[in-house]
Amino acid sequence: xxxxxxxAGGGTGGHLYPAIAVAHALRRRVPNLHxxxxxxxxxxxxxxxxxxxxxxxxxxxxxxSRLPWHWPSMILALRGAIREVRARFEADPxxxxxxxxxxxxxxxxxTARQMNIPTALLNPDALPGRANRYLARLADFVFxxxxxxxxxxxxxxEVRALGCPIREGFHSSDAEEGRRRFQLHAARKTILxxxxxxxxxxxxxxxxxxxxFLATLEDWxxxxxxxERDFDSVQAAYRKAGLEAKVLRFTxxxxxxxxxxxxxxxxxxxxxxxxLTALGRASILMPYPFHRDQHQVANAQCLVRRGAARLVxxxxxxxxxxAALREALEELTAQDEVREAMAAAxxxxxxTDAASRIADTIxxxxxxxxxxxxxxxxxxxxxxx
Length: 385
Fold this sequence. Notes:
Helix content is 41%, strand content 17%. By secondary structure, the chain is an alpha/beta fold. The protein folds into 2 domains: 4-166 and 353-384, Glycogen Phosphorylase B (Rossmann fold, 3-Layer(aba) Sandwich); 169-349, Glycogen Phosphorylase B (Rossmann fold), CATH 3.40.50.2000. α1 crosses α15, α6 (175-181) packs across α10 (254-260) and α11 packs across α14.
């Protein structure tokens, strides 16, 4: 049988895209490697992984919760998944198991630890999520994007700040090809507005609130990815303002979008920021405001502290967001030297070799695996005992 490496986690592109980049790097080193993704049963996992040469296994798992009335069903689901994973690993033991985040990573990483199989975690966010905080003590390595993350994992395993693995297209895309791909004017500077694959309504609203200002920028053009639900209304707003713009629901060619841009307005997901820094693009970041721990704010601050981005706090109010965004836009569209310095700072942060370095570490992990599994690891209400 060909050698096997298992990735466990999913539910969002942020949990899957870095893992896919590592899987590709592993396959380049071991061409006959069998890749298994133990993901979730959410449609986005099947959509993303359906384009990858791998085995896909969906796990019906709830999100980890601190609410006591959720614990019984959560524990039952986790135990069922653990039994299935153990049977799979006993039939074909992986060389390594890599947790990518979310509750779907728990059964496989925990089982691998018990079976003395090398384990690692991908943690590109500045703040580790609940699953990774729990699993960090069980892993041989935790791969993080920024040094700031170390302080949140100081009592756990070996932490290596190697960057966030990025999709292969971001290694080769350039501005000229990006503008040609989207039929943009070669001589104009470009603002990319994006809320990632699902879109971001508050970013869309803030942009629409600034169409009067954007219409005054004669040497700039707009590429706006709206997501499905806001496409019609945003496109209509551009038409009403008499502003020519390239408005798209979605694209599979995000690398070309970023490459085409001189300035990016976006959320602050870990993968997004890795892609911005890999291509060295100045950005205005509006972190996702609805998550309890505000992890995207922490991500954004990693760039802001290094002069690579401006932070606009998403106040979930269209008027307030539009006003704050306009202030940043006025500065960065008028001052080329400031924007170019931000782009240079972003480029300095870029880690285009993260996937390769992580793949090399994974393939060498046999020498780092724990001598014996812990005596007892029982999942009880989100803790280890």
